[in-house]
Design a protein that fits this description.
rod-shaped, 357 residues, single chain
């Protein structure tokens, strides 16, 4: 009995192995997956210096009054569009009109005094020829005429100044733009030089940023710069450098740079963005974006090893739109899958369909 049991187990094991071998041999082999292949190559890419900044108006005007007086009319509000020449503020002109009346009265009095002085001169000239009056009397009359003329000139200047003040009582918009802030209201007192409201022109918009001291030499006036605006879904606008303010901050060592933006109704002062300044180019290894695959939370590609696709993790760098820089993990000339679907796994058998363009 002891000799029979080992023999039975050997027979059963042989039958099981034969069955498994037959099942494996009978299973159809998995067909190779057709794939497109690209070669990792070196290519020149731009070297950019990115700095944050904001869109500003090149025509921000603080509207103030040259007069002191009550604001009689101020009907504009924040956000309202105004055109050049539109009335913004009217100052109560009562005091100015009174000054004009007084100056006008001074002119009339000076004219009367001049006329009277000239008559005296005519009279004394006739009497002086006859010897009826002294020459000194005639001289004094002539001096009085000169003084009257000077007084009349002063009175006329005072009248012109008073009339000019009246033109300052009505303040109009100096530009086509938008009212961005209103500091006063109708009925309040306007003082000379104090801001009443602020108007921003949209004719010229700038992108203001600050660059480091080390990058200052690379910035030339007229340099073309791409400006990417965050709130417009990273829309890119092409501008050019108008200039660098040649005075940096003592602490940060950064310098203000102004970039003229193109006219576009989507651009509004206050928008945040980033200026991408091209400093040159360099050669990097790059692969198509479509070749990148994420496995285990990391990026990689399927490298072609003969007819076997091997997954390899990569360290990637900058994004160039349709291609991505490879920092490490891939050598120049290696072939990779141009596009990998979910059915491709590490060790999958593939067959090339041709190089992707």
């Amino acid at each position: 009995m002891r000799n029979i049991l080992p023999a039975v187990f050997l027979v059963l094991f042989a039958l099981t192995a034969a069955t498994a071998s037959g099942a494996s041999a009978g299973a159809p082999a998995k067909a190779p997956q057709p794939v497109r292949v690209v070669t990792a190559e070196r290519e020149n890419v731009p070297v950019t210096y990115t700095v944050p900044g904001s869109v500003i108006s090149d025509g921000r005007i603080e509207v103030s009054s040259r007069l002191v007086g009550f604001i009689e009319q101020l009907d504009v509000r924040e956000g309202e569009h105004v055109a050049r020449g539109d009335l913004l503020v009217r100052i109560d002109p009562t005091d100015i009109e009174e000054a004009i009346r007084q100056a006008g009265a001074g002119v009339r009095a000076a004219k009367d005094d001049l006329r009277d002085s000239e008559l005296d001169v005519e009279k004394y000239e006739g009497l002086a020829r006859k010897g009826a009056v002294a020459t000194e009397t005639l001289r004094k009359a002539q001096v009085r005429v000169d003084v009257a003329k000077a007084t009349l000139d002063q009175a006329r200047s005072a009248l012109a100044a008073a009339e000019a003040q009246k033109t300052y009582a009505s303040i109009t918009s100096p530009v086509d733009g938008v009212v961005v802030s209103v500091a006063k209201r109708s009925g309040e007192m306007a003082t000379a030089g104090a801001t009443i409201l602020t108007v921003e022109s949209r004719d010229v918009l700038l992108f203001r940023a600050y660059i480091s001291e080390s990058r200052l030499a690379a910035i030339d006036p007229g340099l073309t710069v791409a400006v990417r605006i965050d709130s417009l879904n990273d829309a890119v606008f092409e501008g050019h450098v108008r200039g660098v303010v040649p005075s940096g901050d003592d602490v940060t060592r950064r310098y203000e740079i102004n970039i003229v933006l193109p006219k576009n109704p989507r651009l509004v002062p206050g928008m945040f963005g980033r200026a991408e300044i091209v400093l040159g180019d360099r050669e990097v290894t790059a692969i198509p974006r479509t070749a990148l695959v994420r496995r285990g939370g990391l990026d990689g590609v399927f490298v072609l090893d003969g007819t076997i696709a091997r997954f390899r993790w990569l360290r990637t760098g900058r994004d160039f739109g349709n291609s991505i820089e490879v920092v490490s993990g891939l050598s120049d000339g290696e072939e990779i899958l141009a596009t990998a679907n979910d059915s491709v796994r590490d060790g999958s058998v593939v067959v090339r369909m041709g190089n992707a363009q």
